[in-house]
């Protein structure tokens, strides 16, 4: 039987996963709100052919019900909680649990569930102490997926970067902020390394597993912006002190937690070799595109 993947949320990660799954021989269905891929996805991956993906509207329950008649073997959930609940568990848990063909379900969460660890290294066994309502809900939803009758795997993602979504783009577009906060670390992960991790897990399922997705070099946001400027020659924005910087509530919440994410488990259990062990590898590859 041919593997069939259903992706809830064909966004930045979901759509590119769909493309790579097609290359691996999967049949792929995926949802968006409109039944079409959004412009961010199309512009981020201009040379990618998504024509083999069957795109349906998440808001079309009849078509979605029809898809559940297919022999779905794998489900990927990229949709975040809405109004404090998971929209899939709320509406589609029973149809998913009735899928006798289902071998694997992946839920994309966030390393934000760990909260603040004062810059210490964090692995999958570390204490989860989410520090804001958004990440508290994420942890609650993780537990709901794990407590379901589904073959759930949790993937806690660090900050995602890749085509169209990186410090070089931000400098070029004039949206970059260079913020100074002493001894503060962010972990990040390239979208291609997210996808290779997911595909490896799909091939080697381990129900109930939780994986951290991060590269090898936690760094301050200031370091990343300055390195991007150094490589490209793009103008640096002014240095802002965190305490006085005009940051959105969402941006400020990211700076409230300080931790470094260990990625040993995806390497040891899933055999992942990172395509981009740190952001510098990727920036060196794309910097010539931004030089003025």
Into which percent range does the helicity of residues fall?
A: 25-40%
What percentage of the residues does DSSP assign to strands (E)? 15-25%
CA gyration radius, whole angstroms: 19 Å
Summarize the main sheet.
7 strands, parallel
Mean pLDDT: 96
Reading the helices and strands in chain order gives EHEHEHEHEEHEEHEEHEHEHEHH
Low-pLDDT runs = none
Written description of the protein model:
- With 292 residues, the protein is an alpha/beta fold.
- It has a domain at 4-164 and 189-215 and 262-275: 3-Layer(aba) Sandwich (Rossmann fold), CATH 3.40.50.720.
- It is built from 11 helices and 13 strands.
- The protein has helices spanning 12-23, 39-44, 61-67, 87-97, 133-147, 167-173, 191-203, 221-232, 249-256, 264-270, 279-286; strands at residues 4-8, 27-32, 54-57, 74-77, 104-110, 121-122, 152-157, 159-161, 178-180, 188-190, 210-213, 239-241, 260-261.
- The strands form 4 sheets. A 7-stranded parallel sheet has the order 3-2-1-4-5-7-11, with helices on both faces. Strands 6-13 form a two-stranded parallel sheet. A two-stranded parallel sheet has the order 8-10.
- Helix 1 (12-23) crosses helix 7 and helix 8 packs parallel to helix 11 (279-286).
- It is globular and about 55 Å long.
- The chain starts with a strand and ends in a 6-residue tail after the last helix.
- The mean pLDDT is 96.
């Amino acid at each position: 039987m041919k593997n069939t993947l259903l992706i809830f949320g064909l966004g930045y990660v979901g759509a590119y996963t769909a493309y790579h799954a097609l290359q691996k021989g999967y049949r792929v269905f995926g949802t968006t709100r409109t039944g079409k891929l959004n412009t961010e996805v199309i512009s981020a991956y201009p040379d990618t052919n998504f024509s083999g993906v069957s795109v349906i509207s998440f808001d079309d329950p009849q078509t979605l019900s029809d898809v559940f008649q297919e022999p779905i073997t794998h489900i990927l959930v990229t949709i975040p909680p809405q109004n404090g609940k998971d929209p899939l568990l709320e509406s589609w848990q029973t149809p998913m649990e009735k899928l006798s063909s289902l071998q694997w379900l992946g839920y994309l969460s966030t390393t934000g569930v760990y909260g603040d660890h004062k810059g210490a290294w964090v692995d999958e066994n570390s204490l989860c102490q989410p520090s804001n309502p958004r990440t508290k809900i994420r942890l609650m939803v993780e537990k709901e997926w794990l407590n379901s009758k589904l073959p759930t795997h949790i993937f806690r993602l660090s900050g995602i970067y890749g085509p169209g979504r990186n410090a070089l783009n931000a400098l070029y577009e004039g949206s970059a902020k260079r913020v100074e906060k002493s001894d503060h670390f962010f972990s990040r992960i390239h979208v291609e390394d997210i996808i290779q991790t997911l595909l490896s897990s799909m091939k080697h399922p381990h129900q109930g597993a939780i994986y951290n997705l991060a590269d090898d070099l936690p760094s301050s946001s200031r370091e990343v912006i300055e390195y991007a400027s150094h490589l490209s020659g793009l103008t640096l924005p002014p240095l802002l002190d965190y305490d006085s910087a005009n940051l959105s509530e969402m941006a400020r919440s990211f700076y409230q937690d300080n931790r470094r994410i260990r990625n040993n488990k995806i390497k040891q259990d899933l055999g992942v070799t990172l395509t981009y062990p740190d952001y510098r590898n990727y920036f060196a590859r794309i910097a010539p595109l931004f030089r003025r």
